[in-house]
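call fold(seq) -> C-alpha coordinates
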Amino acid sequence: MKFLNKSLINIHKYIAVIFCFLTLPGIVLAEKEIKITDPSSVVVIVNRDSNDIAFMDIKTNKIIGSVFLGKNVNPHMAMMSNDGRWVVTGGTRSSKAYIIEVATLTLAKVISVGFAPEHLAFSPDGRYYYQGSPDDDTVTVIDMTSLTQIKRIPGFAEPLNITFTP
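ret:
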Protein backbone atom coordinates (compact mmCIF):
# COMPACT_ATOMS: atom_id res chain seq x y z
CA MET A 1 0.00 0.00 0.00
CA LYS A 2 2.86 2.40 0.78
CA PHE A 3 4.30 1.77 -2.68
CA LEU A 4 0.96 2.57 -4.28
CA ASN A 5 0.61 5.83 -2.33
CA LYS A 6 4.17 6.90 -3.27
CA SER A 7 3.47 6.07 -6.91
CA LEU A 8 0.31 8.17 -6.89
CA ILE A 9 2.17 11.08 -5.32
CA ASN A 10 4.87 10.83 -7.99
CA ILE A 11 2.26 10.70 -10.74
CA HIS A 12 0.62 13.84 -9.35
CA LYS A 13 4.01 15.59 -9.29
CA TYR A 14 4.62 14.69 -12.93
CA ILE A 15 1.15 15.87 -13.90
CA ALA A 16 1.75 19.17 -12.11
CA VAL A 17 5.06 19.65 -13.95
CA ILE A 18 3.45 18.85 -17.30
CA PHE A 19 0.55 21.22 -16.56
CA CYS A 20 2.95 24.04 -15.67
CA PHE A 21 4.85 23.46 -18.91
CA LEU A 22 1.67 23.46 -20.98
CA THR A 23 0.50 26.74 -19.47
CA LEU A 24 3.73 28.72 -19.79
CA PRO A 25 3.12 31.97 -21.67
CA GLY A 26 4.48 32.13 -25.18
CA ILE A 27 4.59 28.38 -25.72
CA VAL A 28 2.39 27.21 -28.58
CA LEU A 29 1.79 23.47 -28.43
CA ALA A 30 -0.58 23.13 -31.36
CA GLU A 31 -1.98 25.36 -34.05
CA LYS A 32 -5.73 25.92 -34.07
CA GLU A 33 -7.59 23.82 -36.61
CA ILE A 34 -8.83 25.86 -39.57
CA LYS A 35 -12.52 25.08 -40.06
CA ILE A 36 -13.58 27.86 -42.43
CA THR A 37 -11.33 28.91 -45.32
CA ASP A 38 -13.90 30.99 -47.21
CA PRO A 39 -16.02 33.19 -44.91
CA SER A 40 -18.31 34.11 -47.82
CA SER A 41 -19.42 30.46 -47.98
CA VAL A 42 -21.15 30.45 -44.59
CA VAL A 43 -24.32 31.72 -43.00
CA VAL A 44 -24.03 32.90 -39.39
CA ILE A 45 -26.97 31.80 -37.23
CA VAL A 46 -27.72 33.14 -33.75
CA ASN A 47 -29.16 30.49 -31.44
CA ARG A 48 -30.45 32.63 -28.60
CA ASP A 49 -31.75 29.96 -26.27
CA SER A 50 -28.80 27.58 -26.65
CA ASN A 51 -26.34 30.47 -26.25
CA ASP A 52 -24.28 29.74 -29.34
CA ILE A 53 -23.48 31.01 -32.80
CA ALA A 54 -23.68 28.40 -35.58
CA PHE A 55 -21.94 28.50 -38.95
CA MET A 56 -23.72 26.78 -41.84
CA ASP A 57 -22.24 25.96 -45.25
CA ILE A 58 -24.30 27.76 -47.90
CA LYS A 59 -23.90 25.01 -50.53
CA THR A 60 -24.63 21.97 -48.35
CA ASN A 61 -26.89 23.55 -45.71
CA LYS A 62 -24.90 21.63 -43.08
CA ILE A 63 -23.60 23.08 -39.85
CA ILE A 64 -19.79 23.37 -40.00
CA GLY A 65 -19.59 24.13 -36.31
CA SER A 66 -20.81 26.38 -33.55
CA VAL A 67 -19.31 28.46 -30.78
CA PHE A 68 -20.84 28.19 -27.32
CA LEU A 69 -20.73 31.58 -25.60
CA GLY A 70 -21.61 30.52 -22.04
CA LYS A 71 -24.67 30.05 -19.87
CA ASN A 72 -27.36 32.75 -19.82
CA VAL A 73 -25.80 34.82 -22.61
CA ASN A 74 -28.78 35.06 -24.98
CA PRO A 75 -27.07 36.46 -28.09
CA HIS A 76 -29.38 38.81 -29.98
CA MET A 77 -27.80 39.27 -33.42
CA ALA A 78 -24.43 38.69 -35.05
CA MET A 79 -22.39 40.31 -37.77
CA MET A 80 -19.28 39.27 -39.70
CA SER A 81 -16.50 41.77 -40.28
CA ASN A 82 -15.93 42.91 -43.87
CA ASP A 83 -12.68 40.93 -44.08
CA GLY A 84 -14.38 37.76 -42.78
CA ARG A 85 -12.00 37.41 -39.85
CA TRP A 86 -14.45 38.05 -37.01
CA VAL A 87 -18.06 37.49 -36.02
CA VAL A 88 -19.35 39.64 -33.18
CA THR A 89 -22.47 39.42 -31.05
CA GLY A 90 -23.87 40.94 -27.90
CA GLY A 91 -25.28 38.87 -25.04
CA THR A 92 -28.49 40.49 -23.79
CA ARG A 93 -28.40 38.62 -20.48
CA SER A 94 -24.65 38.79 -19.89
CA SER A 95 -24.13 42.43 -20.93
CA LYS A 96 -21.01 41.40 -22.82
CA ALA A 97 -19.71 41.49 -26.36
CA TYR A 98 -18.37 38.26 -27.85
CA ILE A 99 -15.75 38.19 -30.60
CA ILE A 100 -15.38 34.94 -32.54
CA GLU A 101 -12.46 34.10 -34.84
CA VAL A 102 -14.19 32.75 -37.95
CA ALA A 103 -11.43 30.57 -39.41
CA THR A 104 -11.07 28.46 -36.26
CA LEU A 105 -14.53 28.98 -34.75
CA THR A 106 -13.02 29.97 -31.43
CA LEU A 107 -14.14 32.58 -28.94
CA ALA A 108 -11.33 35.14 -29.13
CA LYS A 109 -12.51 37.72 -26.58
CA VAL A 110 -15.35 38.59 -24.22
CA ILE A 111 -15.74 42.27 -23.29
CA SER A 112 -18.12 43.91 -20.80
CA VAL A 113 -20.38 46.45 -22.51
CA GLY A 114 -23.56 48.34 -21.60
CA PHE A 115 -26.61 46.60 -20.16
CA ALA A 116 -28.44 44.15 -22.45
CA PRO A 117 -26.59 44.76 -25.76
CA GLU A 118 -28.52 44.05 -28.94
CA HIS A 119 -27.82 45.69 -32.30
CA LEU A 120 -24.36 46.34 -33.67
CA ALA A 121 -22.25 47.36 -36.65
CA PHE A 122 -18.69 47.52 -37.89
CA SER A 123 -17.21 50.81 -39.03
CA PRO A 124 -16.78 50.91 -42.83
CA ASP A 125 -13.04 50.24 -42.52
CA GLY A 126 -13.64 47.35 -40.09
CA ARG A 127 -11.41 48.88 -37.44
CA TYR A 128 -14.18 49.41 -34.87
CA TYR A 129 -17.18 47.44 -33.68
CA TYR A 130 -20.06 49.48 -32.26
CA GLN A 131 -22.38 47.69 -29.82
CA GLY A 132 -25.68 49.33 -28.89
CA SER A 133 -27.21 48.75 -25.46
CA PRO A 134 -30.78 50.09 -25.51
CA ASP A 135 -31.51 49.30 -21.87
CA ASP A 136 -28.82 51.68 -20.60
CA ASP A 137 -28.84 54.09 -23.56
CA THR A 138 -25.17 53.60 -24.50
CA VAL A 139 -23.07 52.57 -27.48
CA THR A 140 -19.78 50.81 -26.78
CA VAL A 141 -16.88 51.16 -29.24
CA ILE A 142 -14.45 48.23 -29.51
CA ASP A 143 -11.11 48.42 -31.32
CA MET A 144 -10.84 45.31 -33.51
CA THR A 145 -7.05 45.51 -33.68
CA SER A 146 -6.50 45.27 -29.93
CA LEU A 147 -9.90 43.67 -29.17
CA THR A 148 -10.45 46.18 -26.36
CA GLN A 149 -13.19 48.60 -25.43
CA ILE A 150 -12.01 52.12 -26.17
CA LYS A 151 -15.14 54.09 -25.35
CA ARG A 152 -18.68 53.85 -24.01
CA ILE A 153 -20.84 56.67 -25.30
CA PRO A 154 -23.88 57.65 -23.19
CA GLY A 155 -26.82 59.87 -24.03
CA PHE A 156 -28.86 57.84 -26.51
CA ALA A 157 -32.52 56.87 -26.21
CA GLU A 158 -32.62 53.09 -26.67
CA PRO A 159 -30.08 52.75 -29.51
CA LEU A 160 -31.61 49.90 -31.50
CA ASN A 161 -29.84 50.27 -34.82
CA ILE A 162 -26.36 51.35 -35.83
CA THR A 163 -25.79 52.03 -39.52
CA PHE A 164 -22.88 53.65 -41.32
CA THR A 165 -23.49 55.51 -44.56
CA PRO A 166 -21.16 54.96 -47.53
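The chain has one domain: 33-153.
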